[in-house]
Write a structure and sequence with these properties.
single chain, Beta-lactamase, D-tyrosyl-trna(Tyr) Deacylase, Chain: A, five-stranded antiparallel β-sheet, five-stranded mixed β-sheet
């Protein structure tokens, strides 16, 4: 018996020694970085199976998660809607031959989808319609998140989100050098947008798009220099106006006839379903959201899940309430602040400790593997150029904003231990590449554990 006790004590001492060496190694990597002197770094590493803390550094500090938050908002939606859920845009007819288009909150809906849908409606109904009525009641029409920055209004990664979303609420713009030092701006869409063209010819392409809402929300100022043709996806100002323009285009292409107007109203209860367009499955939409860090997808999916949960119009606040309920068994969930789905708001605040606890909670789900594969791995999505040496060992979500970098997820160590980890770096003034190198150094060290 004494030999067994001695062996157990020896094993415990070895484990303590290994953990101590591991902690010292991560401490050294952080302390050697200039970022530790000028910025805030928070790290948490836990054993995924036991929940035991392996390493922590500023783990209780509230930090802005950036797009790491998408792991947890999309997991909430995934649990509410289920992986095979589809967003169904439906066409109805009422007794007065009015056509109703009931929007579903499909973030992937395109003009071509509408054309196909309306062509099917025309072939199946075989009568002219009076009014064409849009039912956009599925989610509210608040189009930007609390705490989002006004100067991101032309950022193609942050288009306005809305129940009227189509073509991701972006249009194609091309700019070419012109005569007499005046560049030519071409809008390929029927959606009218006013440009103040202040571009000049130069030796490089440095084109800047900006809106100044305190002057005019309808004008986009284009400044900088241009040397060769430039293409850009530019967010539109009014999703409802853009949707209506694309709807008219789809109606025309489908050869659908109507004698009245395009209006908005809920679908009457006695209407007849004619046909529908179904999106890709939720699991595939969430995979796209997480791997490419699609902000518009995350916001609309989050609200749509709230609509499903409450049987009422979906709002961000209802989605946050759903989120808090799902993670309610984590003791610090009430201490964090969530105001959007994508994490871009500076009002979002979570801790590294809460993040690894939440990752551990997700790991305990019986269908964990089905959700985990929706996260990026090295060589795909936002991890396509990072951590390639451990590509089969890592599933993680990155986050990047001005002065903010983050990454969190799951790693299978060299010794086949599964760890959850969260790394937040905030208030830095260095290049994204140098900050992400520190993250990668820490992750590679965790892998060696």
């Amino acid at each position: 018996m004494s030999k067994i006790k001695t062996a157990l004590v020896f094993i415990c001492l070895l484990a303590l020694s290994a953990n101590s060496a591991f902690s010292a190694s991560l401490d050294s990597i952080i302390k050697k970085s200039d970022l530790d002197k000028t910025s805030t770094i928070a790290v948490s590493v836990k054993d995924a199976k036991s929940g035991k803390t392996i390493y922590e550094y500023n783990e209780q500090k509230l930090m802005n998660p950036a797009s790491v938050l998408k792991i947890f908002t999309m997991k909430t939606a995934y649990e509410e809607l289920k992986p095979e859920y589809t967003f169904d845009t439906k066409v109805f007819a009422d007794k007065n031959d009015n056509l109703y288009i009931k929007l579903s909150g499909d973030p992937s809906l395109t003009t071509n989808d509408l054309k196909t849908l309306l062509k099917e409606a025309k072939e199946l109904y075989r009568k002219p319609f009076n009014d064409v009525v849009i039912d956009a009641s599925i989610i509210d029409n608040k189009q930007w998140g609390i705490g989002w920055m006004w100067d991101d209004d032309t950022n193609e990664l942050l288009p306005k989100y809305s129940p009227y979303t189509i073509n991701e609420n972006k249009i194609d713009i091309t700019i070419t050098p012109g005569k007499n030092n005046i560049a030519e701006i071409k809008n390929k869409s029927d959606y009218h947008m006013m440009f103040v063209n202040l571009l000049k010819s130069g030796t490089t392409n440095n084109v800047v798009f900006e809106r100044m809402p305190w002057q005019s929300s309808d004008m986009t100022y284009v400044t900088g220099t241009i040397n060769s043709a430039v293409s850009k996806k530019l967010p539109i100002n009014s999703p409802q106006s853009y949707f209506t323009i694309e709807l008219k285009k789809a109606i025309s292409a489908a050869g659908l006839k109507y004698s009245g107007q395009i209006k908005t109203a809920p679908v009457p209860g006695n209407s007849t379903l004619i046909t529908k367009h179904s999106s890709d499955t939720l699991e595939n939409l969430i995979a796209r959201t997480l791997k490419t860090s699609n902000n518009l997808y995350s916001e609309i999916i989050f609200k749509a899940a709230a609509a499903h949960n409450t049987k009422q119009q979906g709002t961000t606040q209802k989605a946050v309430d759903m989120f808090k309920k799902y993670y309610g068994d984590l003791k610090t969930t009430n201490d964090i602040v969530i105001v959007d789905a994508c994490g871009i708001s500076r009002n979002d605040l979570i801790t590294a400790d809460w993040t690894t606890d939440a990752l551990n909670k997700i790991y305990k789900d019986k269908e964990f593997d089905k959700f985990a594969i929706l996260l990026p791995k090295p060589m795909e999505g936002t991890l396509r150029d990072r951590l390639i040496n451990i590509s089969l060992r890592l599933r993680a979500k990155t986050g990047t904003a001005s002065g903010i970098s983050s990454i969190a997820g799951y790693i299978d160590s060299k010794n086949n231990k599964k760890y959850t980890f969260a790394i937040f770096i905030q208030n830095h003034n260095q290049s994204p590449e140098s900050v992400k190198k520190l993250e990668d150094d820490l992750i590679n060290e965790i892998y060696k554990m």
